[in-house]
Amino acid sequence: MNLPNRLTLARMFLIPVFLAVVTLKIKYGDIIAAGVFVLAASTDGLDGYIARKNKQVTTLGKFMDPLADKLLVSAALIVLVELGKLSAWVAVLIIGREFMVTGLRAIAAAEGVVISASKLGKWKTVTQIIAIVVMFLHNVTLQFLGFDLGKIAMAVAVFFTIWSGVDYVSKGWHLLKKGEY
Question: Which residues cross the membrane (predicted)?
């Protein structure tokens, strides 16, 4: 159990803390929830950086890291829907993309093909995290311009979610079809 794997597990353990803060409806709960979410999300880049830098990449880490990311983002999206801050179709689209990419990676892995994370996938994650945080911070608005920053940030996240999903499917299909490993 190395440090990167501990950070990944910490991210998973922070999910119930995040959910508890949101559901207990405590004073400044949304702000605290956003802080817990940012703390959890920040471990994502940190665990990968440490694992690569110290040559501590493990099979457990390769499995748990993306799972922890998906659980964290899915939990936040579902809570935002429950709170009436996000349309359900947005959550379904984002979570559905995650299932699709995970399924494609599983099929590819069974064929001995590795579909690596792309820069678009990383942009997707960053934009989703930003959008979720902005929405928890009371859907911060630029009232003087008439813009809802939460909706704009989520629209950007949806754009990158779709774009990266299409990119993964396209790359995965071509790798499987051509037998390029």
Answer: 6-24, 31-51, 71-95, 126-146, 152-169
What is the value of pTM for the model shown? 0.88
How confident is the model at residue 141, as a pLDDT? 61
Instruction: Show me where the domains of the chain are located.
Output: 1-83, 85-180
Question: Distance between CA 69 and CA 14 in Å, rounded?
Answer: 11
**92-140: per-residue pLDDT in tens?**
999 999 999 888 888 887 877 777 778 998 899 999 999 999 998 875 6
Other CB atoms within a 10 A radius of the CB of residue 48 amount to 18
* Phi, psi angles (nearest 5°) of residue 148: -100, 105
d(C-alpha 78, C-alpha 75), whole Å: 5
Superfamily for the 1-83 domain? CDP-alcohol phosphotransferase transmembrane (TM) domain (1.20.120.1760)
